[in-house]
Amino acid sequence: MKTYRDIVGDGGSNIVEQVTAQKNRLKARMDSVRHIVAVMSGKGGVGKSSVVVNLASALALQDYSVGILDADINGASMAKMTGVRGQALETGETGVMPAMAARNLKVMSIDLFLPDDSTPVIWDAPTQKDAYTWRGMMETKAIREFLSDTEWGELDFLFIDLPPGTDKLPNMLDLLPQMTGTIIVTIPSELSQFVVGKSIRMAMELLRTPVIGLVENMSAYMCSQCGHEEKLFPGSMVEELAKRHHVPYLGRIPFDPRVAVCADEGSFFLEKHGDLPATIAIEQIAHRVGEFLKQQRSGDTDLRRL
Amino acid sequence: MKFLCVECDEPMKLTDTKGPDDGSMTVVFSCPECDRKIAMLTNQMETQMVRSLDVKIGGGSAQEEPMAAIRNSLAQKRDDIFSSSMHSHEETDQSESTSKCPFTGAVADAFEASSEIVWTRQAEERLGRIPPFARSMARQGVERHARERGYKEIDDAVMEEVRDQFGM
Ligand SMILES: Nc1ncnc2c1ncn2[C@@H]1O[C@H](COP(=O)(O)OP(=O)(O)OP(=O)(O)O)[C@@H](O)[C@H]1O
Ligand SMILES: [Mg+2]
Ligand SMILES: [Zn+2]
Fold it and tell me: CATH code at A205?
């Protein structure tokens, strides 16, 4: 009697072939992206999305071609923060065209598919019993579709806005083994610093993804009247934390209400406010990210080669 | 998983799939020798597994439509996601075979009737790599190329010839 190995093919179910085709499609799409950068944090609400938009716009303002993928399916904010909410999508030759923000910044987010701000993401599930497992599966599926079915074109940078926490990063790396690295955002509260240590170790030790660096957000409050700077949290040690884990410290962005105002109205903070401390800080961080990636291209810091 | 007809010692071939229905899929295999049929009935976990891979049992490797899962599985979505000018594309995309869309179906039928050129399975598969909305145009293009050169059959070699032109 024949055994498994005697039989060529899988009798027509074509599963391996389809999975391979999916992988190839994603890889082919990402081949025209030079750097894929995921932005993560240990805790929620520390300003990841805000950092994504500000870094992406800083680079777009320098005439790089930049895209943003909103991988935070249940807390999507990229469409609103970049001002593309409500834009109609177009189908192109090989996929769906991304929404276009100012400075040709390309954006893809589940938000572009939802009727209004208050609609939650609900997937049609085969049975309600499985709704929970189903959800995680659909999220991964959606992210893969966003990556491979969006006509990103040639990009210098693709930023990925991750949901808070580290649990989605392994998934992301499964999809995108060619990811360049991660940026970790934290605020100088004690709890945040504690959690961020875990994120760094997760990224570096378990997943062997280069950490491009640590961004300290809302580091201080600047009085808009007199320019006096006040620490929001006493005893910030984020810079030491970075040293301890041997990851670059990219800089601190002070708390400035105008950052939040721009995010809410979907305009670029850097374009609106030329020479505030927060503007200079963001530009500096963008510069350091650029430097890191140049190095990365020569292969010195690619931990995955180990 | 593979199925073997013990009597004939022949690998069985997939002939039909149904479902998922209430979390279960029915996949029918038959023996090419004796035509014996068996059905594989999946439980919920097995169905989930197949689904999580985002594949169809017996499906082709060609993409159905861009972002199919998002479009088809979001319970509540904007009804103006895609700009109206692309609406016709969407209709073509969603039809699994071109015949569902009256327009492209008619075109394809008319075209097939007039064409005596045979496609090998490999060539058909390569055509399948082209997005659905561009496929019928590509088919016409390849057949035109073949006809101009007097080919009766479109095989891998012919596809190679036109590859640069159509990016297959
Ligand atoms: N430097 C800053 N100064 C003032 N406001 C800021 C600053 N950074 C972020 N914010 C504001 O803080 C809020 C939270 O930021 P954001 O949404 O970017 O955080 P997040 O880490 O992406 O949150 P989530 O974990 O929910 O995705 C937003 O309203 C944002 O505009
Ligand atoms: Mg966010
Ligand atoms: Zn003051």
Answer: 3.40.50.300
- Surrounding residues of ion ligand 3, Cβ less than 5 A: A 223, 225-226, 228
Domain tally, chain A = 1
pLDDT tens-digit profile, chain A (306 residues): 888 888 877 777 777 787 888 888 999 999 999 999 999 998 899 999 999 999 999 999 999 999 999 999 999 999 999 999 999 999 888 899 999 999 999 999 999 999 988 888 988 766 666 677 778 888 988 999 999 999 999 999 999 999 998 888 888 888 898 899 999 999 888 777 788 888 888 888 777 788 999 999 988 777 767 777 777 666 668 888 898 888 999 999 999 999 999 999 999 999 999 889 999 999 999 999 988 887 765 444 343 333
Q: Which domains, and CATH codes, for chain B?
A: 8-55 (no CATH), 117-168 (1.10.8.550)
Which residue in the block uniquely carries the two structure tokens 């101009």? B148
Q: Which residues between 258 and 297 in chain A have a beta carbon less than 8 angstroms from any beta carbon of chain B? A: none
Structural domain contains residue A12: no
Q: Is the residue at A6 inside a domain?
A: no
For residue A182, the enclosing domain spans 17-301
Closest CA to A55 of A170, A172, A168, A184: A184
**Is any ligand 1 atom within 6 A of the Cβ of residue A49?**
yes
Distance between CA atoms of residues A236 and A220, nearest Å: 10
| Residue A197 Cα distances to A118, A161, A238, A253, angstroms | 34, 19, 10, 19
- pTM tops 0.90: no
Interface contact B66-A149, CB threshold 8 A: yes
Q: Could you tell me the distance, in angstroms and rounded to a whole number, from the CA of residue A259 to the centre of ligand 1? A: 9
What six digits make up the tokens of A305? 């080669």
Tell whether ligand 1 has an atom less than 6 A from the beta carbon of residue A41. Answer: yes
Task: Give how far B148 is from chain A: nearest CA, Å.
Answer: 26
List, in order, residues 6 or more apart from A247 with CB less than 8 Å away.
A184, A200, A204, A211, A213, A214
The yes/no answer to whether this complex scores an ipTM above 0.90 is no
Q: Is A80 part of any domain?
A: yes
Which ligand approaches the C-alpha of residue A225 most closely?
A: 3
Q: Which of helix, strand or coil describes residue B87?
A: helix
Best B63, B71, B121, B126 residue to mutate vs chain A (most A CBs within 10 Å)? B63
**Nearest C-alpha to atom 28 of ligand 1 is from which residue?**
A260
